[in-house]
Structure formats: C-alpha cells, structure tokens
Design goal:
Layout lengths: L6 H9 L11 E2 L9 E5 L1 H20 L3 H28 L7 H12 L6 H15 L6 H4 L4 H10 E5 L4 E2 L3 H4 L2 H8 L5 H38 L8 E3 L13 H4 L5 H6 L15 H11 L18 E3 L16
Antiparallel strand pairs: 1-4, 2-3, 5-6
The chain binds zinc ion (ZN) (2 copies).
The site of one zinc ion (ZN) has 6 residues, from helix 3.
Length: about 325
C-alpha cells in the first residue's frame, strides 16, 4: 500500500528528486521529467474551436429555435457521447475493458471523435497524461482540477499544460499504426463536415447549428463539468490510499452521463467495463456493452473482479460514507 504524504512535504521531496515518478501503461518518465514543473498556456486552436461552436449555439437559439432541431441534437449527443466517447474511446480504446471486432471499434472511436474534443491519439494522450499525473505523490492544479470553478473551466477548455520536461508517451503499435486512426487523428475537426452535410440534407441549417454547434459546446462543457466535480468531493465507494487526487461518484447523473458519473469507481477499477459497479448505479454505457455482447460483438468484458485491485485500494466505511454499506458486494 502506498504511503500517504502531505502535499508540501511531497512537493519538497519531489523537487529534491526523492519521490520517484511512477510509470503507467503508456507514460514513461525520463530522468529529467518533472510532473510539477510546467506552464499553463492558452491553446488558440482549442479556444477558437470552443468559442466558434458557442457562437454557433447563439445563432441556433436565436434564429433556429425549433423542436425538431433540438431533438436531432439530443439524439446525436446521446449517440456520440454514449457509444462514441464513453464506450468507444474511453472503455474500449483507452482501457481495453472489452474486445470488439476492429470494424466496430473504428466506428465507435469515430463516433467518439465527433464529440469534438480530440482525435483518437489526442484523447488517449489527454486521458493518460491526466491519469499519470494523478498517480504521482504530487499533482499540480491543472491535471487535478484543483483550481476554482471558473479558472478550471478556462484552463481545461481553453488552455493546455506544457511540462518543461515531458515523459515519453507511447501508444501501442496496433493503434498508433492503424491507418484509419491516423487519418481521423489528422482530420478530427473536419470529421464534423460529413455529419453537417447529412444534418443539412435532413433538416436544413437549423439541424446543422443545433446538431453540430450546440452539441459540441454542450459536450465539451459537460465533459469538463463532470471531470471538475468528480475530482473534488462526493460519494466514494473506495479510496486509493497515498494519492493526492481521488475520484468521486456523482449520484443521480447516470442517465445523463451514460455512466461516466461513477468516476470514484473508475479510479478504483480503471480497467472495468462497468462503471456503475454497485447495485442501483445506472450505467447506460455498460448496458450498451452487454447488448453488443448479446449480439456477439463484444467479449472478454472486464469487471472489477477480473483484475488485481489497485495498490492502496481501500473500501470507504459506512461510518464516513453512509450511502455505501460495507457489506455490499459488487454485482
Ligand atoms: Zn479521474
Ligand atoms: Zn479512464
């Protein structure tokens, strides 16, 4: 089990080089790597992308307030966030929590790209660098969501965190050399264009402004908001002792976030395809994986009990967390 250290002590020890940086599956620190020395810089492309879609959202609301366009936006949001982001990008491409045929994996990852955050490699990197940071004994405020609400919103959606000395980052060859993923990575913003054409053909300009601009703005902002609240406080079934950043569950948001709200569980069992691991925790992303399994399109589904527990994983007692009875078992 890791040893809990207070932040100031760990910071000084890390600066003296006494606290080694741990590696993860894809992140390998070099001798000169520091997890805490870096700068938060405005990311022009990311910021203009967000403000462009926000401006398009204003156009949608003021000039094209139509229920059919809103319905198209909600449908496409559900498809891209649930099947694309949560199941395709996060649970499959990043964590390999189940197996799927390559054609299906590519479709799901493409849908995840349509969320508008990054291409497949960019998503893997953003996720894994944050995860790597959060596994060190000291985590700076950018990757830990440690700043206040508005500052963190600005940092996460409009800036990037540049380390002075980055660790090596290696994506597995099977993904890195995939020609489809390489194409989507190079053109991830332009991947909205075929969808925009389809929306225009189906419902005109109103469907384009709602189905692209409003959807992307809501998706980017919603993704940030879940990440912000899920790293600060809330319900916990487990803690990972010795780490400065913990994940928290956000009860009541299962249907809205397709299961990504069970982030405390995700910190406890990162490779589990099921995020809502306790009774009553609704997890639509996992329901989709079970449907795919029934159709013969998903197998080797990993659950919390499939892999050895994380080092330092400790059940939160019912005393400190009444909604989590200690005798409860995973189902
Ligand atoms: Zn997290
Ligand atoms: Zn993850």
């Amino acid at each position: 089990m890791g040893t809990a250290v207070s932040r100031p002590d760990a910071t000084r020890a890390h600066q003296r080089g006494e606290v080694p940086l741990v590696a993860t599956d894809r992140v390998f620190p070099r001798a000169e790597t520091s997890a805490i020395l870096g700068n938060i810089r405005w990311d022009a492309a990311k910021s203009i992308w967000w403000f462009g879609h926000a401006a398009g959202s204003v156009v949608a609301v003021t000039l094209f307030a139509r229920w059919d366009a809103v319905a198209a936006m909600i449908t496409l949001t559900a498809l891209t966030i649930c099947a694309g982001h949560s199941v395709g990008m996060h649970r499959l491409l990043i964590h390999r929590s189940f197996d799927a045929p390559l054609w299906l994996e590519r479709v799901l990852v493409w849908l995840g790209t349509l969320v508008g955050m990054a291409g497949p490699f960019g998503m893997i990197r953003a996720h894994d660098m944050r995860d790597w940071h959060q596994r060190q004994t000291v985590c700076p405020p950018h990757p830990s969501h440690g700043a206040g609400f508005w500052r963190d919103a600005w940092w996460q959606m409009h800036c990037r965190y540049d380390l002075d000395h980055e660790p090596d980052f290696v994506i597995e060859d099977r993904v890195a050399s995939d020609p489809f993923y390489r194409l989507v990575e190079r053109t991830w913003m332009a991947q909205q264009l075929p969808v925009a054409l389809l929306l225009y053909a189906l419902g005109g300009a109103a469907w384009v402004f709602w189905g692209i601009c409003v959807r992307v703005t809501l998706s980017l902002t919603g993704h940030w908001a879940v990440g912000y609240f899920a790293h600060r406080t809330g319900h916990q079934g487990w803690v990972v002792a010795g780490l400065p950043v913990q994940g928290y569950n956000l009860p009541g948001l299962g249907l809205l976030t397709f299961g990504e709200n069970w982030h405390g569980n995700h910190h406890a069992f990162p490779h589990s395809a099921r995020l809502g691991v306790e009774p009553g925790q609704r997890d639509p992303g996992f329901w989709l994986i079970r449907r795919l399994e029934a159709l013969g399109l998903a197998r080797s589904i990993r659950l919390p009990e499939s892999t050895p527990p994380r080092e330092g994983l400790t059940r939160v007692s019912a005393v400190s967390n009444p909604s989590c009875a200690p005798e409860r078992t995973l189902s």
